[in-house]
Design a protein that fits this description.
Length: about 240
């Protein structure tokens, strides 16, 4: 339920953090919370939005640890742990986006999502993706952006999906290193845990494999899809070896 209120222990369990981690985040006001009398509470919808921002900033070991825990959370839905074959396909990939502005990239990515047949309300999805970008850009170093809506709502999509676009001309999308972005994912999941896990999976693939370079070198959508599947297989094998 999007308007559910969580206790301190519940939010710690939900985010795979310790109670001490949550106490420190509250003390530093680095996590959304409110006081109800003497009771500390957290609105799940605000926590979900905060968590998506946090995942994009995780690096190396913290990201790998978080991803390992969320893999277990989604095991019932994805017994083999691989999510790419179910959430995307070559038809969901556009290797030659012509958009030259942030606004037009968002419109083109949502249009690509509409073509999957899994989107209910494209206008609402555009508005929510724009709201998420206004909150904090989803681009990060390496020329990659992970677009998604601010809140995960059933009104946006029938099934979870990932669409991928490669811009012919890199554009400035708010990456903290100031460099332009040319690879754009749009992630849409009704289930929040799957949404957060998917963000972590793509981030891990970008950090722990040559995915980004291979996507730029790929000739067509089918080749780009193969890059995703192969990169996912590589990071899962590394994760299994480390366990």
């Amino acid at each position: 339920m999007p308007y559910r209120v969580l206790s301190q222990q519940e939010v710690a369990d939900y985010l795979h953090l310790s109670a001490a981690n949550i106490e420190r985040l509250v003390k530093d006001r680095n996590i959304p919370f409110e006081m109800r009398g003497k009771r500390l509470v957290f609105r799940q919808q605000e926590i979900d939005a905060w968590a998506s921002q946090r995942i994009l900033k995780l690096a190396d070991k913290p990201l790998a640890e978080y991803h390992q825990k969320t893999t277990r959370d989604t095991q019932s839905a994805f017994p083999t742990a691989a999510i790419m074959p179910d959430m995307t396909q070559p038809a969901f990939i556009a290797p030659g986006l012509t958009a030259k502005t942030k606004a037009s990239i968002i419109r083109d990515m949502v249009a690509l999502a509409v073509n999957t047949g899994r989107v209910y309300d494209s206008h609402a999805l555009i508005a929510s993706v724009e709201e998420r970008e206004a909150l904090c850009p989803t681009a990060f170093p390496g020329g990659l952006a992970l677009l998604h809506s601010r809140y995960q709502q059933p009104a946006f999509s029938e099934e979870p999906f990932i669409v991928l676009g490669r811009a012919l001309q890199p554009i400035h999308f708010g990456s903290p290193d100031g460099r332009p972005t040319d690879l754009f994912f749009l992630v849409c999941c009704q289930d929040v845990k799957l949404h957060l896990h998917t963000l972590a999976r793509i981030c891990l693939m970008a950090q722990k494999s040559a995915l980004l370079a291979h996507l730029r070198e790929a000739d067509d959508a089918t080749s780009m899809y193969d890059c995703l599947v192969n990169a996912e297989k590589e990071v899962l094998e590394k994760q299994n070896a480390a366990e």
